Structures
1.
Amino acid sequence: MVYDAVVVGLGPAGVCACVQLKRSGFSVLGIEKEKIGGTLLDASYIENFPAFPGVVEAMDIVKNLEKSLAFHGVDVLFDEVQKVTKGREYFKLICRKCCVEARCVIIATGMVPMHLEGIDGNNVFYRIRDVGDVSNKKIGIIGLGDTAFDAGLRFSELASDVYILGRGKIKAVLPLVERATRRKNMHVFEEVKIEKIENINWQTKIVFIDAGGQHTLLCDKLLICIGKTHELGIISPTLMRKMKKEKFISQELCSGLYIAGDVANPDARYLSVALGSGMKAAILASKYLREEWKWKCLQKKAQSKMQ
């Protein structure tokens, strides 16, 4: 079966695109390599989404995304897309378990965490969802942005102590910072120079310097939140060259290929932006599909007249 549209990545943007395309009358497949929800799986609460006054748990939104896909009858495949290429007529998505063809593709794979070179180990993590149990443990977090503080607040409910440190000044929004200052087991160090990070048995040793001198921190688990970068490596070299040649607007990489969500808006990684981006990609894809269909109909008419 050739789908009208395949959406890669089922975070908020991908789900929004799937639903909009499905209700526009197109056959749609959503492909997700892990769990539905995207970066919402790493969040505790959402406080800046107008549809929910006050504070809403991120997992409640994830459940609604799953329900929305089911309600609209969107086909879902749990697999990892390794390559997106273009044949003579259709896009081809090569996955680990199978291959899928589509008339158009929306990539909503989000962002991947930036890594510290040489810093790895069984107790070093780059995503909140991977940290696991923190009960009665000392947790270190490198980074001073929203993600770091949100993680710290989540961990502090069970951990014995949470240490947040970074080389610059605090970048997190004020409500998160204020909440952190009220938690007795949360300790924040800004404008530090990290001298050394090394694994010692089942702990990680961090040596850093701040205005008060040199400190040594031993933590049971270390989460690194130093930023994210987008990953478009699944796009084939042929399509990448075509992207440079074709004139594209905003989220359209080339005819029939679109991006949505954090990968399209790396500097505005918010739920409301992701949903709007998914909707816009779906509208662009719908327009492309309708124009392509009209063109094919005209071609068939011309061919029949010639015969």
2.
Amino acid sequence: MSTLLVSSLCPFDTTNDVIFSRADFAAIANIVYSESGNVYTDGKATLVYSRLTPRLRIHRTDSFAEYIKLVTKDADERRVMVNLLTTNHTYFYREAHHYDHFIETMRPELIDKAMRGEPVRIWSAGCSSGEEVYSLGMALLGESRSEGLRIAAKDIRFLASDLADHAIEKARAAKYAKSALAPVPADLRNHWTKSDGDDAIIAPTVQNLMRFRSLNLLHQWPFDGLFDAIFCRNVMIYFDTATKEQLLLRFAQQLAPSGYLYIGHSERLSGPAEAYLTAVGKTIYQRTT
């Protein structure tokens, strides 16, 4: 991956206790770009400073230059740094029109496939803390508990991957504030979550469908099977055009025939993937070749 060029217009306060220069920011931005594909422009300087300063204190240094030397040599600390700088904003039933399409169009097809004894595979790529993939799991099982239990007994798996280890840990915990589940239809909440004080826990039936793993989307993917649907929403907005188009092509090639790709509301299909995918809804694409 090529070097990301960062301009020298970042506002840095030379009176800070921790020394943070424009060159430090550029070095960190290049590491983040190389490791994750995320583009960090000057406007992210304050975020970088605030999120990484505690790590400098842990390592007993007041110099970002020294910390950069550490992450250059230490792969574990480099991973910690990239995790800290990864954005993990999501919520249940985000972009509800995608769930409408999933329920109305995909769900009947997937249930028929599962009932024939065929595997059903769905990938939440960039799953963050799990709200998306649990929303999908509840939507697939549906508003009838008895039907949902029959569906769950079939060969259905959701792969939920993210670069950030802390996001995966939260997703595996499957525990959220009750208020966070407000966007989920009431029947789905009632059947597929259980109350725990002010929190709600995703039902084991839904949890058992999930396979969470840490995965860098830019690296080689450790699977060969095709997916019936891939959700990668509001992840590629942090990538440059070349990285985004390469990833879209890989997603298209990882879809089963007639499978669907769902992307974020501000993202658009472009590049070689256009030869494989046809728009069938707002930021919804179907593999047609």
3.
Amino acid sequence: MGSRQAVAMLLAVFLLTPGAVRAEFPERGIEVIVTFAPGGTPDVLARTLAEGLQDNLKQSVIVVNRLGAGGAVGGGSVARAQPDGYTLLFSPALIASVVPVLQPQAGFTAASFEPVCQTFESQMALIVPAESPYKSVRDLVEIARKEPGKLTWGHAGRGSIPHLAMLELSQVAGIKVVEVPYKGDAETIPALLGGQIDFAPITLSSVPEGRVRIIGLFANARNPAIPDVPTVKEQGFDVAPTSFGGLFAPKGVPAPVKARLETACKAAVETPRYTDLARKLRLGPNLYYSGAEFAAHLATDIADKARLLATLDTK
């Protein structure tokens, strides 16, 4: 065998060896799609996480806000992206558990995504204006039972976790209250302060200090940041939905790529800047979970939301 033939054979073996010519992921910048507006809690979390990912992966990680149709536009763009790890989605779990149910025309389902890592758990609070006569959830429920249809409430949008939380509470408490939809907590809070609505379920991180009263927390246990605020469950109503979420990749992302992203995600969540932000936003205690754990949480949430959406009027 001549030297040229030997070199050719060695080259062929090298090229046929799995991963031999693959450069280590990532080779270029990564794009993270956020389906919420700039400045909101999901956006701020995503940008802080992106900084940690960038430090770990040694490539640029750019956050892109892609709004529309309650998350369907941004979610759909990631579901249709190449599953190579360079296009990711940062979103609450409702992108998998709620959006496909309420918007089947979106063109994706929970199966369209690969959970990479869970990075936050956000609790919901039930609030009234500071001068409101309602001091507790029981006060509010008592009036609503006596005078059905008198009280009005606002929420962050159809199918949002605050929306579903109050719908579930209405069912459990057996009350009829008038629903007023808004576009996010940023619209709901001024409506409450302006007297247009009587109460509102909103994300705890959005509660304006000193201007409202939190009469109940949708959680299984009190939040250490507000230890004097009782949960809705403590007040006799077994309703405790939370909004959790994190990083998703399109279905079909290679296992080694997912593993690299998961490792980087864990490191990013454990940075002081991310944990400090989580504390400032009064997030729930559970921040990071692995892709497998995140997937298990999603499966439970999908089943829970399916039951809720089937029994409650979300139209």
